[in-house]
Design a protein that fits this description.
Blueprint (H helix, E strand, L loop, with lengths): L3 H17 L5 E7 L2 E8 L3 H21 L7 H10 L4 E2 L2 H16 L9 H7 L14 H8 L7 E4 L2 E4 L12 H15 L4 E6 L2 E5 L11 E6 L6 E7 L4 E6 L4 E4 L2 E4 L13 E8 L2 H26 L3 E6 L4 E3 L1 H6 L21
Antiparallel strand pairs: 1-2, 2-6, 3-5, 4-5, 6-7, 7-10, 8-9, 10-13, 11-12, 13-14, 14-15
Helix pairs in contact: 2-7, 4-8, 7-8
The structure holds adenosine monophosphate and magnesium ion.
Length: 353
């Protein structure tokens, strides 16, 4: 009797452990679109996670090829057709993204302007290989400022025609969000219930991160734009996205002024009034475009721009380092527990872009 009690207890404990144990998380790190994309999947059988991750790798390769203007692929073909004054046929997905980019550009009153590819190229921000160390001349900037806006594109089904040949489309401010959304759709389609997709600090959650009772939300750190610490952390509701636009991703300095990759479409110059903007939204596409738009909108217009885009959880770091945020962000940002995050991505991790 004295022997059987401990034995049965041991068996019960083993059974309980067997019931509650879930497979170890599956992690995959894929370099794509100029950044590391980390996908963590939990609570799924290894084979399910592995085959979902295979689909994610294929998907990312297609985004890298077809949504980037400066390498052979669909977007480059579209830009070539526009330059030649010809209509172009694109994939259903690319047509839908360009239509959404057009809508968000109009709502942001042109702060988000994917038609400014010629300016991005002039500043050399399209690739590290094109980086320059001095600004272009005013005459060169003026020549490219005259380019048309994304509103000049007429999209019917999957056929795109431009009213003008003078536009170079750059989806750099929204494509990563679209890619993260496509990854999440792939994971959900594969039956994955819990995952975190982290594209160099731009994130989207699926389900919960586990922890006690398996129900803790994913908790993500918001990087300090002048690092190495965090501004705080935030818990993501099911399938929410958190995207940050920052002046630390691609830049060079001239006489102490930081010239970086987010441009004011009205002047053709890098924005100088803002260090970073983080937006939480239901999709990566919206969060990505909105973060860029609110960054450009600046101290006077950022709240109105966020409202117009339908995002209400926004954090803005001014050029002087001061923080401004919407009340919804204030309710959710937890500065005290900054170190206690599932994901911490200080500046510098992003091997940009
Ligand atoms: P993000 O990091 O999402 O803010 O995107 C920045 C990228 O978007 C830049 O590297 C450019 O390719 C592009 N971009 C720069 N300025 C703008 C703008 N005002 N509107 C839309 N895209 C922009
Ligand atoms: Mg963006």
């Amino acid at each position: 009797m004295q022997r059987t009690v401990p034995l049965s207890v041991a068996i019960i404990v083993m059974l309980l452990a067997g019931c509650s144990a879930e497979p170890p998380p599956q992690q995959s790190r894929i370099y794509s679109m100029g950044t590391w994309v980390d996908v963590s999947i939990r609570g799924a059988p290894a084979a399910t996670a592995e085959s979902a991750l295979d689909r994610v790798r294929t998907l990312l390769a297609s985004y890298e090829r077809d949504y980037y203007a400066w390498a052979p692929g669909q977007l480059a073909d579209l830009n070539a057709s526009i330059a030649n004054g010809e209509p172009a046929r694109v994939s259903t997905e690319l047509a839908a993204l360009i239509r959404e980019a057009q809508r968000l550009s109009a709502l942001s009153d042109g702060a988000f302007e994917p038609g400014l590819g010629a300016l991005v190229e002039l500043w050399g921000f399209q690739s590290p290989l094109a980086a320059r160390s001095s600004p272009p001349s005013q005459a060169e900037i003026d020549a490219r400022l005259a380019a048309a806006t994304i509103g000049a594109l007429d999209i019917s089904g999957t056929i795109i025609v431009s009213e003008t040949q003078n536009i170079l489309l750059d989806l750099g401010g929204i494509a990563k969000g679209a890619a993260v959304d496509a990854i999440v759709a792939t994971l959900l389609d594969a039956g994955i219930e819990h995952a975190l997709v982290n594209a160099g600090g731009d994130l989207r959650a699926v389900g919960r991160s586990g922890g006690a009772g398996g129900e803790r939300p994913w908790r993500v750190g918001i990087r300090h734009p002048r690092g190495p610490g965090l501004l705080g952390n935030i818990e993501l509701d099911r399938n929410e996205a958190a995207f940050t636009s920052g002046d630390y991703e691609r830049f060079f300095e001239v006489d102490g002024a930081r010239l970086h990759h987010i441009l004011d479409p009205a002047t053709g110059y890098p924005i100088s009034h803002t260090q970073a903007v983080t937006v939480i939204a239901a999709s990566g596409t919206l969060a990505d475009a909105a973060a860029t738009a609110v960054f450009v909108a600046g101290p006077e217009r950022w709240r109105a721009t966020a409202r117009a885009l339908g995002v209400d959880t926004v954090l803005r770091v001014d050029a002087d380092g001061s923080l401004e945020m919407t009340s919804s962000m204030r309710d959710r940002l937890n500065p005290a527990a900054a170190a206690d995050s599932d994901i911490i991505t200080p500046p510098g991790q992003d091997e940009s872009d």
